[in-house]
Amino acid sequence: LALLFCEAAKIAPMASLATSLDEYSLIYSFFSSSATEEPKKVSKKEQKRMERGDSGKKKEKDPNRWAVDPEKAKAKAEKAARAKAEKAAREKAEEAETVAAPTPKGQKKILAPAMAKTYDPSLVEASWQEWWEARGWYGCEAEKVAQDKAKQKFVIVIPPPNVTGSLHLGHALTAAIEDSLTRWHRMKGDATLYVPGTDHAGIATQTVVEKQLAKSGVSRHDLGREKFVDEVWKWKDQYGSRICEQLRRLGSSVDWSRERFTMDPVCAKAVTEAFVRLHDAGLLYRASRLVNWSCSLKSAISDLEVEYEDVEGGCLRKHDGKDYEFGTFTEFAYEIIDNQKKKVGEVVVATTRLETMLGDTAVAVHPEDPRYVHLHGKKARHPFFPDRELEIVLDDILVDMTLGTGCVKITPAHDPNDYDCGERHDLPFLTILNVDGTIVKEMTPFKVKGQPVTNATKETMPEWVAGQKRYDARRLVEEKLKEKGLFRSKYPKPMRLAICSRSGDIVEPLVQPQWFCDCSDMARRAVKAVEDGDLRIRPKMHEKTWFHWLEEIRPWCVSRQLWWGHQIPAWFAYAKADDSSLDVNDASVAERWIVARSEEDAEKKARELLGGEFSHLTRDADVLDTWFSSGLFPFSVFGWPEKTVDLATFYPTTLLETGLDIIFFWVARMVMMGLQLTDTLPFTDVYLHAMVRDKDGRKMSKSLGNVIDPLEVIDGCPLETLVEKLRGGNLKLSEVERAVKAHSEDFPEGIPKCGTDALRVGLLAYTVQGRDINLDIKRVVGYRMFCNKLWNAVRFMLGVFKETDFSDDDGAATTTTADALKAKFHKLAFRDRFILSRLAKTLDLMDAHLTNYAFGDAVRCLYEFFLNDLCDVYLEFVKPVVYGGGENDDDDQEAEGATTKKGSSSSREAVTLAKMTLWLCLDAGLRALHPLCPFVTEELWQRLPRSKKVQANLESIMVADYPTTSNIPVLLEAKSDDVEAQTAVVLACATAARSLRAQYDLRPKVAAKFFVKIKDSKTADRFQAQQQDFVTLANAETLTVLREDDPDPDGCAITIVDEALTVLVDLKGLVDVDAEITKLTKQIADLQPLIAKLRAKQADPTYLAKAPEKLRNADADKLANYAERRDTAQAAIAMWQNTRSQP
């Protein structure tokens, strides 16, 4: 029978032999009982297949099943083509909706019907600046301000940038800070004025124009002074407007009707008046003193125009086309002589500037140095000037016994320290250099204070050195010293070279007849103003610099040997008896220098002085230091010395903001001149921002190729254009190649387009307490992403609102939104209260940050609010609310104690309140951000839906109220640490839930049941009110809140948030248990040898005795970590095994 059945099974299916379940059972029983071996168990799946009569044979497949039906293929292709065409048409129509009509210049920007899908700064920022200017919002009427005495004022004058081409990123930072403060105060309702202007920049501008003329083979001397100055004015008119364009592009809300140039008639009158008044007060005088001299420019230069270069000992440096050695200490001897001028010994001195020994007049030793007591009262003989005797002077200020030989050569006319020593010991001064840096042919001893030198006779410079360039003279002097046997040694010594920033020439200390200003009394008043708190310097750490400079102040050299600038209003009065040999710089004729407001006044004074002997006047050819006119800027811009309405209304100003590098050169001089000439501080606050350097910490310098035009960041700039600009400039070929290399390394694909807002907020983010900003343009580029995220987020949020939300009869989303929310505050959901609390605290922080000039903190504050609080949290919270319909009466629905995704639809009132909350956050947030990012905030704010009545009263965000908790009453009530703390619990649990999903590869579409176990009953009760928010963020199918005593559900993975919070996810049916156990087992296997190795190590007495404590602690931490990971894996295996055993 068995064989018969088997043969039959080959012929027919099982179902044909066993026509019923009973028959099948009989047959199966028969074979089961008669078999000698136990049959294999039939699976349930096999049984069901047998019941269906399925033979298990594979169906034969049609070999033509993949053949293409031409008709169907054609229909399918036509359908795809239609879909593609419809999509293209739809996208084209949508794109057309984002294109705005052209806006006539000066009119309010015409917005496109729809927002573009991507943020384009050039489109967003277009037209707003012209409209703001045309509306007159940048101005401030003095008459109205004068009438409203109670109104607060905020007045600031721009640090006038040099009219030498274009602004750099340092200027952009200044503009960003100043305009942010200006817009903030304007929105606060203060009488606000921001005055623009530019500086004539004497040396810088003259140098630029001279270089341009040199390309045509023309020098300024070829043209003559008058024609050369005309050329500079032409250059200023051609290129000066570029700075104004840059300021406009940077969004600077300056009052262009009050724009000033430091050489315009208003400022020129102020300069002349200031010079005359200071001279009449005895503070301005003409004298021969030591100055920083540029042999290339043939002019004195300010300390600000001196840069310092550290050189290694014994290095070669090119100068005037030749290599010279710098950083070398040369020791040589002077012979000590007795009264009969016989040699009785020698004294060895050392110097890095050997050529200056030609002007030595003394040798200094320390009075307490026992080595040189025998030299007291003695004299030394100069080897090249036998009749010149050098005094041995005792000076404990200049001489350090521990340095060098302990003897110091004194060249009073060519070194600042020697100059002071010469004054202390009344030494004669000898000038060895001409103004071009060559060695003079004759020298006449003089005293800087004007006293005649007894028996002074001219000294003739030896022929072998007279007329030589200064560094050629250095070599020659060394050779001659060797010939005379006075050379002792030469060795490397690192040193600092003073370099003229304008010409690259090495600065030479040189005594020259100049005009000086005695600043001692003015400096004393400036120090007292800070000490008394009348003038506040921020950051406060810079007060130390302030006191140091002013307490050690020297007379200020205000004259420059240039043609471009304010010509000094001083004339020399010649007498009829004078001949061509008269030295106008001689102290005996000093009184003949006449200072006056005009040549007519000068002639009148000269005739009073000389009477009938008066012959004629010659005006001083020199011009004033640029900082002189800049020092008057805070009051000259308002018409001083005339008593104008502007001067009476807006002076003194409120704030001076600038870079810390000019705290003395400009800030201190403004304070001193303001106190001296107006008897008033020119401002009450000084904010000094850090120096802007490149990402490697190098100073921004054209010669380094790291100076970036702000417009190149705003508009973007390809590398080719950057290189072309460098090659077309005034740089030397070597400097061009270095700059090209720097650009190629930093911007291999050019600078991407960032826009003004990104540039501003990127620069502001750098302003933290410190001295230097190492600016990486790539980080600024990153802030374009902030603007992009802001654009996309607001675009998405605007889609929440409907036109019916803003009818004129509806109170929602109008100026009464805040009041409506306050009236229904008790009905607000926890999520709404959370974001309003965050908004309130953000606004409080913004007010504090801007008040304290903490711009970096302000940027971070708003960044966190928009991207973290509003977008990442609240927007996610309210998506199911505002998109869920609004059909239910209750906000959150519950089913069998668990909150579900199906329970996310909300009541109409909850939807309305959520929309109102979202609208208020957008409105207040954009207004808070506007001072920092003016363009994108205006564009987005204009798109906020409002009723027609409200829209008519709100013209621009820049004249809207700055949001504060005091002018938005609901925010005072909404501010709550408890609400934020509770929401933080929900967020932490949601984060834990997402981690569980990621850990077990539960994709968002996988329905997962979550549990949150909360030990604290109060927290659990509060969490109950925000269950739906957790469900939303965790994308949970259901959520069940467990109390401390509730047992943990089976089959769940667990993550601990903190000691009071645990999040669980039900994994039954969602995870391959065997695979998880295998993975965990492998983890344990990998950890066990690591644990064993560390335990053996810790049991080793040698290790315990010799291993450093730091190493032993690190190993202990590793062991604890490995053990914890093993224990966690073991617990997880136990959990999975328990899950597998569950039915």
Set out the fold topology.
Elements: H1 2-11, H2 14-17, H3 21-34, H4 44-52, H5 70-97, H6 121-124, H7 128-134, H8 142-147, E1 153-157, H9 169-187, E2 191-195, E3 197-198, H10 202-215, H11 220-223, H12 225-249, E4 260-261, H13 265-280, E5 284-294, E6 299-301, E7 306-311, E8 315-319, E9 322-326, E10 328-337, E11 343-351, E12 362-365, E13 379-381, E14 389-394, E15 407-410, H14 416-424, E16 442-443, E17 459-460, H15 470-483, E18 487-492, E19 495-500, E20 508-517, H16 520-531, E21 536-538, H17 543-551, E22 556-557, E23 559-560, E24 570-575, E25 593-595, H18 599-610, E26 614-619, E27 623-624, H19 626-631, H20 633-636, H21 645-650, E28 655-659, H22 663-678, E29 685-689, E30 691-694, H23 710-714, H24 719-727, H25 733-746, H26 756-765, E31 772-775, H27 777-798, H28 817-823, H29 830-851, H30 855-882, E32 894-895, E33 898-900, H31 908-929, H32 934-942, H33 948-953, H34 969-974, H35 977-999, E34 1009-1014, H36 1017-1024, H37 1027-1034, E35 1038-1042, E36 1052-1058, E37 1061-1066, H38 1073-1098, H39 1101-1106, H40 1109-1141
Parallel strand pairs: 1-2, 3-4, 12-14, 21-29, 28-29, 30-31, 34-35
Antiparallel strand pairs: 5-6, 5-20, 7-19, 8-9, 10-11, 10-13, 10-18, 12-15, 13-14, 16-17, 20-22, 23-27, 24-25, 24-26, 32-33, 33-35, 34-37, 36-37
Distinct helical segment count:
40
The 3D shape can be described as: globular
Question: Distance N terminus to C terminus?
Answer: 42 Å
Unreliable segments (pLDDT under 50, ≥5 consecutive)? 8-24, 26-37, 809-815, 887-896
Count the beta strands. Answer: 37
Overall pLDDT confidence: 87
The Rg value, from CA coordinates, equals: 43 Å
Percent helix, as a range, is 40-55%
Give the amount of beta strand, in percent. 15-25%
Classification by helices and strands = alpha+beta
Described by strand count, sense and barrel closure, the largest sheet is:
7 strands, mixed
